Amino acid sequence: MTVTSALSQSGAYVVYALLVGVGLFVLVDEDDLVKKVVGLNLFQTGVFLFFITAAFRTGGRAPLVSAAGPYVNPLPHVLILTAIVVGVSVTAVALALVVRLSDAHGTFSEREIRAKREGPTVPEEPQP
Amino acid sequence: MTPSDLLPLLVALPLVGAVAPFVLGATRRGRVVTAGILTAQVALALAVTVVVATSGPVWTVVGGLPAAVGIALVVDPVSSVFVVLVAVASWLLYVTVRTDATGPTDSLWLLFTAGLTGMTVTADVFNLYVFLEISGLAAYALVASRRGTRAALAALHYLLVGTVGATLYLLGVGYLYVATGTLAMADLRTALPAVGYDSPLVVAAFVLIAVGLGVKLALFPLHAWKPDAYAASALDVSALLATLGSTVPGYALVRLVFDVFTGSFLAAVPLAEVGLLAAGLVSVAAGGYLTFRQTDVRRFLAYSSILQFGLVVVGVALATPAAVTAALVLLVANAVAKGGLYVAVGLFDREFGATTVADYARLARDAPVVAVGVACAFASLVGLPPTVGFAGKWYLALAAVETRAWLVAGVVLLSTLVSLAYAGRVVERLFLAPEPVAVGSAPVVTDGGEAASEAKPASGTAVSPAFRRRATGVVVVSAVALVGLGLGSTALAEWVAPVVEGWL
């Protein structure tokens, strides 16, 4: 393995870790529901990148049927195609729910939606 | 047709059948076809179980591919229990309490069944992820199918948390694949010792998979989605989710820990075992506390699930045959009890507008049969003989004493006392409350979530007598099943014993 390809592969792992971290942070920290969904997407994309990087092989070619090797490992690519479909479906359902919420409340902000729903705060004391 | 041809059908029937209600729409024909598909699913599940009983585990690889590259499906005694549970619960709840359905949401009901059945029969860790997400997506949409934005917000919350859990599981699968180059459970089992159980890749994979499934199980710090989702969904959906939604991921955790990582992994990496044990014990303690201070009955039951699944994880962590049997028995016990309880709670809600514990005062006078059923279900959750909940706790306590885990034995005992306290509160209200309190007078305590305040129906909303009869029937069936399984718990333990002993 040459130095450059080793660097590019470890570089991909760094990007994977960044995407997962940033995605989770956005998901947890962001108040805007659409941005939350985008954070979820970043998180999932980071995981996809991890699979693709793991399949990488120095000097490997696209996994198509022909006599000459070497190929990159085709199996993770197939798995990730499935996972991307799942990710798209999750995003679609999430955005549909966000649309329903914003239609009813006129905002994408989770804090505002909860505030509008709850009205006066509920006491946190246990009941006797 | 050989018995192993039945396995792909178990998944394919509800998956392909899910198109039917969508095409037929909210017509009588659509409902009849859906009920027919679910009935056929029950017949298939029972047929597979009969084959397992007579000639051992059934095994097939989809598409006739070699096992190393294909997707294997297996039903052994342990998974057959959950195949039957999924099919029967889904069928029973559909034909009895499902009322306000439209065509497309019946499709979701079938997809949910297909996803869960897939999780129980698959022998491939990536395939498990796909089925986890199919059932997850169907569950999010089912929660959202109730009118009003409270359900939509709960469903979105559930979706965000659930997807993070499933994606962490996928990441764990990726680490396993990098470590071993295979995704089939049988190959992983033999490949992992060759890599070394204490290899960072394997340990990281274990942690990610356990945390990912922990989200689906709603173990303590990962539980926040559950009370909202269960309290905001329609009554039939909450009954279905409470019966199966976390039970099957619980089965998947047992299967992955013992069939893929094996008991030797837990022995070689003590930290993994301690981590599981701590997660379970914390869930038991936190679940007990949160249940105890809860007043809204649906949220109350959701918190009690956190305690129950904590006990299951404790059973997994102890990793002796008795403890694993306890985990499996507790999963079944919780599913049957929660199904009956959520149907009863839904009936009380619709008929009397009762949603909090205080509202339940003297309801036993108006609905004596349901009240007795509720008392039976609570007896099982507490662990009183002769219910199946008692059998589960008995095995767990036995395993704790055998392994000299006194702390665990103490916590199991304490959990029983706490459960007795909170279950006693509801049962006392139902049967012995001094005088009826005005409905809806008690404020709802929440755990950072949202209070149930939307569209509370006026007391005594019209419930058709036929619906009341059917719902009462489900509660009675669940109570009878709890006692029956309790009396037959030795048979249940013997049924799973060959597999459990093979694991350990």
From TrEMBL, chain A:
Gene3D superfamilies (alphabetical): 1.10.287.3510
Protein name per the record: Cation:proton antiporter
Protein location: Membrane
Keywords: Membrane, Transmembrane, Transmembrane helix
Keyword presence, Metal-binding: no
Membrane topology: Multi-pass membrane protein
Lineage: Archaea, Methanobacteriati, Methanobacteriota, Stenosarchaea group, Halobacteria
Species per Swiss-Prot/TrEMBL record: Salinigranum rubrum
NCBIfam families assigned to the protein according to its UniProt record, in alphabetical order: PRK07375.1-6 (NF005621), PRK07375.2-3 (NF005624)
Transmembrane stretches, start-end: 6-28, 40-58, 78-99
GO CC list: membrane
